[in-house]
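User: Fold this one for me? It's Glycoside hydrolase family 20 catalytic domain-containing protein.
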Amino acid sequence: MRKAIVLLLFVFIQLALFSQTHLDSILPVRGFCIAAPKPRGVDSFTKFIVEELAPRKVNTLILRIDFNYEYKSHAELVDTLALSKSEIRKLVNACKKNNITLIPQLNLLGHQLWASHTNKLLQVYPQFDETPHVKMPEKYEWPNPDNLYCKSYCPLHPGIHQIVFDLVDEICEVFETNAFHAGMDEVFYIGDDRCVRCQGKDKAELFAGEVRVLNDHLAQKKRQLWIWGDRLLDGKTTGIGMWEGSFNNTHRAIDMIPKDVVICDWHYERADKTPVHFSMKGLNVITCPWRTPALAIEQTEDMVRFRKQSSKAMQEKFNGLMQTVWSDAATFLDGFYQFKKDEKVVIIRHGAALGGCMKK
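Assistant: Here's what I get for Glycoside hydrolase family 20 catalytic domain-containing protein.
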């Protein structure tokens, strides 16, 4: 499980030396992805956007919001310490003033449970659970006999999408955005043999069907769907493994989803060249590093090189880079500004990258 402490904030400090036009041609998307701040941290995170992200020419910010917003459409799903509309407005205004595209993420399909904590959707609507027969153990450990990592909702349940659409529409309106990140990573439970709706169905088609349903809904209001790319890679054949690739045959969905979906292709152990695979399939792709500065630099250089050395048709599919952070915003800022000393955290304040190590 990914429990992050601090970061790695890439090579943008060097890229900032380029003119805006030249920079956009090198890396059109220069993104940053992190959990949305808690209410008490909104002001400090807004300051971080203005004083740290903007000067480094970051132009895309993804905030993992999930159920930490005061939804009006489904108040029963609001989690504790949720952000208000006025608090999100501060983040929206800071991004607008600095030409940063702000995109909300709500984990859909998978990640409806984290370790021993069930997320609000399945807490309130347990009937949506793809695997209700898989019960939480008294003490969670991985690996386990049930292959329980994160629960999924059943994509064929007749009641799921009206609720999902309400949430997606509301959070996109609050964020004033034309893009939405649906997560959809690390889906281990899909097409379960004991699900009365999904049993016996092609897992790739089930995954692709959910992508299409979400994409079609967003397209009605001219919004773009972003997802993580791991379920579209064959983890067995490539040797990438069950986390950054699929072991349950969802990878074939890559040929079944709309070509306008943006793929966030994350790799944290090696600079796997999978952006080329996504581009050759006609999909827009963004490479996503995490905690290793040298690896992030290599992934950035790969993306620049892919754009430079590809055909015009493929070149346009290599969209750029997005740094991922897997801690909460407050912990990240503490490490970034060295408010709290941690000998296991390394912050490089100058040079090619602002970096650090994260503890799992």
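One thing worth pointing out: Residues 203-219 form the longest helix (17 residues).
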